[in-house]
Design brief:
- The chain has helices spanning about 15-25, 50-60, 105-120, 170, 230-240, 240-255, 305-325, 330-335, 335-360, 365-380, 385-390, 400-415, 420-440, 440-465, and strands spanning about 5-10, 30-35, 50, 70, 75-80, 80-90, 100-105, 125, 130-135, 140-145, 150-160, 185-190, 200-205, 210-220, 225-230, 265, 270-275, 285, 290.
- α1 packs parallel to α3, α7 (about 305-325) runs antiparallel to α9 and α10 runs antiparallel to α13.
- It has about 475 residues and is α+β, with helices and mostly antiparallel strands.
- It has 3 domains: about 5-70 and about 105-175 and about 280-345, FAD/NAD(P)-binding domain, CATH 3.50.50; about 180-275, D-Amino Acid Oxidase, subunit A, domain 2 (D-Amino Acid Oxidase, Chain A, domain 2); about 355-470, no CATH class.
- It is built from 14 helices and 19 strands.
Length: about 475
């Protein structure tokens, strides 16, 4: 063919695609990145880059460019409008291998920094290239694009699908996920009027947003990223409107939050979706792999996807480099990618996915919120509890054994002291919620219970072998 032949074509130039291109080009591969828009460009996201992500940015040479950003060191948790926790983020600053803070970085800036790092490493970038078709085989891949009204065909040995939730590459490979149980929908906007710069990320849990939450993440100059996210399955089943939920959330912030009375949106809110790790399949096929959102590398509880996207790309790049060296790009050879990402993500993500599955039942909202409120109150007085038991929500080293031990220790302690009325009410609340679910929607409830059982069996098997969360040590 007249068009150039590359070692690898990366479809999509977000964090996942840029990091894959950076690693492969830096190791001598001839890499082409196809991005359907131009840089800098906006992307619907919470914009939160936690310490593990900052470690990867440092490896790419991008972290110093973010020195002017507002460090996020504290958090606040609101449950049904009441502030239940406020203080330092308990698992930040514990591991000396990681920065003691996070950053809120607009994606138009972050993605531009990352793709520039990939280009410096030797990757070739084509912007405004809309991918219209992908053909894959063990002997090579063909990617068709439309650019400036003209069609182009690019040929390579391999392809990386980093093109997000509606991945053209995933669809071509027959791996596109459409399961609403593992899809979250969101609405996000930027706002001003917060006053002084405070490095405190705020999270809002309410029954109307369950299973999901609202957030308010601060940046320099009194600007915040605020939004709501909700499980797609719940939205569909109950006919909920995410735009209406977002509007109600912003109005409630203006009325009840001491710093938000003058909150002003700087642009209309925009929506997006993510696909979480519970739906992650093999993510490999003849001639290629899927990374980032295309491969469902998103935290099932927080919806955080920037760091997992970059991590998945580092794992995929190493497998592809080995496959290119051997000349074997068959699905069988690339199955090493699944083995590696399972070994890396499963020890933490399977447990988090189990918790997310438990929370899928909307009728469990009230007992769940009561449990969350009590956990937050304990966190303010018990650092060990907050650091370990709170790890299910954004922890940097998720320890399923430790989380379960601390929770059951607290429950057993209350039972040993006395059958406290509060504990009795909690247990009755769980039982009533479960019975209500069975009565009102028995078919859905039985399916949900079956999902819970399957996920618990996977977690139990994982607990028999894994002893530490590999994500704490990292990859870069």
């Amino acid at each position: 063919m007249a068009t150039p032949r590359y070692d690898c074509i990366v479809v999509g130039g977000g964090p996942a695609g840029a990091v894959a291109a950076w690693r492969m080009a830096g190791r001598g591969a001839h890499v082409l990145v196809l991005e359907r828009t131009g840089y800098p460009r906006e992307k619907v996201c919470g914009d939160y880059v936690e310490p593990r992500g900052l470690r990867i940015l440092e490896a790419l040479g991008c972290l110093r460019s973010l020195d002017g950003e507002l460090p996020i060191t504290h958090s606040a948790t609101y449950v049904e409008g009441r502030r239940r926790y406020a203080g330092p983020i308990p698992f930040y600053g514990v591991d000396t291998r990681l920065p003691p803070h996070g950053y809120i970085v607009r994606r138009e800036r972050l993605d531009h920094l990352l793709i520039q790092a990939a280009v410096r490493a030797g990757a070739e970038l084509v912007e405004h290239a809309r991918v219209t078709g992908v053909e894959t085989s063990a002997s090579g891949v063909w990617v068709r694009t439309e650019r400036n009204g003209k069609e182009h065909t690019h040929r390579a040995c391999a392809v990386v699908g980093a093109d997000g939730v509606n991945s053209v590459v995933a669809e071509a490979a027959g791996l596109l996920v459409v399961d609403p149980r593992h899809i979250a929908v969101s609405k996000r906007a930027y706002a001003t009027g917060m006053g002084d710069d405070i490095g405190e990320a705020a999270f809002f849990f309410e029954e109307r947003l369950f299973p999901g939450y609202g957030w308010m993440f601060p940046m320099r100059g009194g600007v915040v990223n605020l939004g709501v996210g909700l499980l797609s399955e719940t939205r569909q089943r109950l006919g909920l409107s995410v735009p209406a939920l977002f509007e109600a959330f912003v109005e409630e912030l203006r009325r009840s939050h001491p710093l938000c009375s003058g909150l002003r949106l700087v642009a209309p809110p925009i929506g997006g979706i993510v696909k979480t790790y519970g739906a992650a399949g093999p993510n490999h096929f003849d001639g290629g792999v899927l990374v980032g959102d295309a491969g469902c590398f998103v935290d099932p509880i927080t919806g955080e996807g920037i760091t997992p996207a970059m991590e998945s790309s580092l794992l995929a790049a190493e497998v592809l480099l080995d496959a290119l060296a051997s000349g074997d790009l068959s699905a069988n050879a690339l199955s090493e990618y699944e083995r590696r990402f399972r070994a890396y993500f499963d020890p933490a993500m399977l447990f988090v996915d189990l918790v997310a599955c438990w929370m899928r039942n909307r009728r469990m909202a009230r007992p769940w919120l009561a449990l969350l409120a009590r956990g937050c109150e304990l966190a303010e007085s018990d650092r060990e509890w907050s650091r370990t038991a709170g790890g299910w929500f954004g922890g940097l080293e998720v320890d399923p054994r430790g989380i379960m031990f601390h929770i059951w220790r607290k429950v057993a302690g209350e039972l040993a002291l006395t059958l406290q009325p509060a504990l009795g009410r909690d247990l009755a609340g769980w039982q009533a919620a479960w019975l209500g679910s069975m009565i009102h929607d028995p078919v859905w409830t039985l399916g949900w219970l079956a999902d819970l059982q399957r996920k618990w069996l996977r977690v139990a098997a994982q607990l028999m072998t894994a002893h530490a969360d590999p994500r704490a040590a990292g990859l870069a």
